[in-house]
């Protein structure tokens, strides 16, 4: 996530937290900015899904859905 972050703006941070009540098996919960404020999350279970999840979260940060 940190490598995919844009050069300007706040750098990405990785934090350990609870499972947000989702408790996914073999998956990671990812959220950011606007989506976190709305209580929305993306579940990623394979490394190949990370780019798409980050793109979805990044697009939402720019105001598009």
Instruction: Give a short account of the largest sheet.
Output: 2 strands, antiparallel
User: What is the subunit organization of this protein?
Assistant: single chain
Helix share of residues? 25-40%
Order of helices and strands: EHEH
How many distinct beta strands? 2
From the N-terminal CA to the C-terminal CA, the straight-line distance is 20 Å
Widest β-sheet, arrangement of strands: 1-2
Based on helices, strands and strand pairing, what is the structural class?
alpha+beta
Annotate the secondary structure layout.
Layout: E1 28-30, H1 33-37, E2 42-44, H2 50-61
Protein architecture, described:
The protein has a domain at 28-61. 26% of the residues lie in helices and 9% in strands. The chain has two helices and two strands, in the order βαβα. Strands 1-2 form a two-stranded antiparallel sheet. The relative contact order is 0.18.
């Amino acid at each position: 996530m940190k490598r995919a972050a844009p050069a300007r703006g706040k750098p990405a941070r990785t934090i350990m937290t609870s499972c947000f009540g989702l408790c996914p098996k073999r998956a990671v919960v990812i959220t950011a900015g606007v989506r976190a404020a709305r209580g929305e999350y993306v579940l990623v279970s394979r490394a190949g899904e990370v780019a798409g999840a980050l793109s979805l979260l990044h697009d939402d940060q720019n105001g598009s859905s």
